[in-house]
Amino acid sequence: MHSVSSRIVALSSILFNATTILLFCICIFTYIADKRRAPCNLQIVSIQPVTTHNVGKNVVFNPQIDLREYFHLNVKQIFVYLRMHNKNNSEMVWSEIVKKNDSKRFYERLVNTYRFFDIADGAKIRFELRGCVFPYVGIVQDKLLGSVVTTVKRSGK
């Protein structure tokens, strides 16, 4: 006869193994799942100077993206952000966390969340819309959703 403690140990061992196999299968599913890229037509509407004591710039942009294709049973949330690259550095200028139950479509005009200051007039800048996909189980993936190159118009012209 087996004692109660040995039965509990055997049951917990079986449950642990089953849970580990389930988590491994979910992780594998994430990599096998359809990896279509959602079409993104990133548009920079304008880059405007800000009239405050610290002269910065605002960027108005239209991401035109539907993130529904990125969500499946293992995706918890996506951190979507707009990154600006110039010849000296790169900065994040806008971000938003899109959770499973949130609206996943971005077709309206948006304004940057974070101010930026070190852009010379006439400079060429590359904007990238990126997303960090956070799964319940597995590795966080950083994906390029769209990019565009634009030139900053000279002030006063």
Descriptive notes:
- The radius of gyration is 23 Å and the shape is elongated.
- With 157 residues, the protein is α+β, with helices and mostly antiparallel strands.
- The chain has two domains: 1-32; 37-151, Immunoglobulins (Immunoglobulin-like).
- The mean pLDDT is 83.
- It is built from one helix and nine strands; from the N terminus they run H-E-E-E-E-E-E-E-E-E.
- The chain crosses the membrane at residues 14-33.
- Belongs to the SPCS3 family.
- This is Signal peptidase complex subunit 3.
- It is a single-pass type II membrane protein.
Written as H for each helix and E for each strand, in order along the chain, the element string is HEEEEEEEEE
Shape verdict: elongated
Largest β sheet strand count, sense and barrel closure: 4 strands, antiparallel
Average pLDDT metric: 83
CATH hierarchy class name of the largest domain: Mainly Beta
The assigned CATH architecture of the largest domain is Sandwich
- CATH T-level topology of the largest domain: Immunoglobulin-like
Quaternary arrangement of the chains shown?
Answer: single chain
Strand content: 35-45%
Spatial extent as radius of gyration: 23 Å
Unreliable parts: none
What is the H level of CATH, i.e. the homologous superfamily of the largest domain? Immunoglobulins
The level of helicity is 10-25%
Structural domain count: 2
Per DSSP E runs of 2 or more residues, the count of β-strands stands at 9
The spatial strand order of the largest sheet comes to: 5-4-8-9
Distance between termini?
A: 92 Å
Helix/strand class:
alpha+beta
Give me the number of helical elements.
Answer: 1
Pfam families: SPC22
Protein name: Signal peptidase complex subunit 3
Organism: Trachipleistophora hominis
Family: Belongs to the SPCS3 family.
